């Protein structure tokens, strides 16, 4: 068993991650949501960084307040921060939160429980914040010294997850594909992310199944390694905005102000990605390198507020699954819950074209200075972030990225972070945390290939004679 971290380091990690949760208990006082006081109560999750355009970044930039001032200047915003979507749902059903943002599974639970309660409690899903069509927003990580190579190796072990979250759902569905019965073959501990992170570090949990940004955070800190990329499940996952139906009907102008402010924040994130990541990092205490992994150009999350057919279809498929594991009792009636009329109005004439596209609006572009090539393929493009430089350096492909790193090291530059898509799944990950494979039979420009998981690398090696796993440092030296 791996030795636990020194108490000072562990306490430091948990205190940073838990900082946002405390504000959920202290902000807002006795504000009455939807009342005549002019206060609008918004529930969000600061650490769930692909909701930032409806939460952390939106709050920091003040775009919602600006839109409200333009409207009539009579309203104020009360922000409530939580670790997960469950307490936001509870507060919405109690009429204490007007607008909230959360993941797809919590959204489904929100709608199901609101429909069951009926009346003024009913809610509607009105926009998307960030999504990943393959499901890579959710992952399973293990301790760095773990011998587990696939989910199958977790049989008989304890897995920490927030039951009912998208991270938990990804684990359950993936485990079944590996022949495991999640109810019998593993012990799932229902824990908040902060508690689960501590459990992984102490060794009381063998794995940690969570949503962004938790897996990337622990891997970035060297306190975990990626065992399973949710992208292997190939099921879309997303986060979105939900509103109390009655509130939307009575105050449509307020909801329009919020959605237009969300669009403002999305545009800001696309046009100033590094600045946006630094803003979120400063506000949340998360490392900026982790934020940028998910929210930067070509990041794990694609930010687009439109409600796409692929996401709605995945949502429909999630209903029987969540019922099967006992998270919801009453199946959600999807049609009355999904309402894209508000975001359609906010986006305007471009909505139909935008909703039909699944291309990431934020792509890595520019010229690879070392390889002398234009960077234009999102499937291979990477970035090198040099300490002290205001912009990242684009790399055309994995081999060019290694060459960039070698050249910068030769110049004595300090590299802050390096990002590259996984060879098979396309998931953007930390290049220095990837498992690299050398394939002598491949063309020189494709000789070294990155994989986010050990399993992915070994699958490639077994299918390509002569291919072998090599350390990252060796790949850099020999690229």
TrEMBL record:
Keyword annotations: Signal
Residues spanning the signal sequence: 1-21
Domain of life: Bacteria
Keyword Cell cycle tagged: no
One Pfam family it belongs to: NMT1
The SsuA/THI5-like domain, residue ranges: 134-276
Stated name of the protein: ABC transporter substrate-binding protein
Species, as recorded: Actinomadura spongiicola
């Amino acid at each position: 068993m791996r030795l636990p971290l020194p108490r000072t380091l562990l306490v430091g990690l948990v205190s940073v991650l838990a900082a946002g949760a405390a504000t959920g208990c202290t902000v807002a006082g006795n504000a009455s949501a939807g009342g005549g006081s002019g206060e609008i109560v918004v529930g969000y999750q600061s650490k769930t960084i692909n909701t930032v355009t409806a939460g952390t970044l939106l709050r920091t930039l003040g775009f919602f307040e600006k839109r409200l001032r333009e409207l009539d200047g009579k309203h104020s915003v009360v922000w409530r921060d939580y670790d997960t979507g469950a307490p936001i749902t509870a507060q919405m059903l109690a009429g204490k939160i007007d607008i909230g943002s959360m993941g797809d599974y919590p959204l489904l639970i929100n709608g199901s429980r609101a429909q069951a309660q009926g009346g003024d409690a009913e809610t509607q899903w009105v926009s998307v914040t960030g999504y990943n069509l393959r499901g890579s927003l959710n992952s399973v990580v293990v301790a760095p010294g773990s011998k587990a190579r696939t989910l199958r190796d977790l049989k008989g072990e304890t897995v920490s997850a927030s039951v009912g979250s998208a991270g938990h759902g990804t684990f359950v569905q993936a485990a079944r594909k590996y022949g495991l019965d999640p109810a019998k073959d593993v012990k799932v501990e229902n824990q908040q992310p902060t508690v689960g992170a501590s459990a992984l570090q102490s060794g009381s949990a063998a794995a940690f199944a969570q949503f962004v940004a938790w897996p990337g955070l622990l891997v970035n800190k060297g306190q975990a390694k990626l065992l399973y990329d949710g992208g292997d499940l190939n099921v879309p996952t997303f986060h979105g905005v939900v509103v109390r139906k009655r509130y939307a009907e009575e105050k449509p102008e307020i909801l329009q102000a919020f959605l237009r402010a969300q669009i403002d924040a999305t545009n800001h994130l696309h046009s100033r990605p590094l600045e946006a990541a630094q803003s979120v990092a400063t506000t949340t205490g998360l490392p900026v390198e982790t934020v940028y992994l998910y929210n930067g150009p070509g990041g794990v999350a694609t930010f687009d507020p439109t409600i796409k057919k692929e996401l709605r279809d995945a949502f429909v498929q999630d209903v029987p699954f969540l019922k099967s594991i006992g998270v919801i009792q009453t199946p959600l009636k999807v049609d009355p819950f999904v309402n894209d009329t508000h975001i359609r109005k906010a986006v305007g004439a471009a909505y139909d074209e935008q909703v039909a596209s699944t291309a990431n609006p934020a792509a890595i572009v520019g010229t690879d200075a070392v390889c002398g090539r234009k960077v234009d393929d999102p499937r291979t493009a990477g970035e090198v972030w040099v300490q002290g430089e205001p912009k990242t350096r684009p790399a055309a492909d994995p081999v060019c990225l290694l060459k960039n790193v070698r050249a910068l090291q030769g110049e004595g530059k300090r590299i802050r972070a390096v990002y590259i898509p996984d060879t098979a799944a396309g998931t953007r990950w930390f290049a220095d945390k990837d498992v690299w494979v050398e394939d002598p039979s491949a063309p020189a420009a494709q000789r070294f290939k990155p994989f986010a998981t050990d399993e992915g690398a070994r699958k490639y090696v077994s299918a390509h004679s002569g291919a072998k796993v090599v350390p990252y440092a060796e790949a850099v030296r020999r690229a």
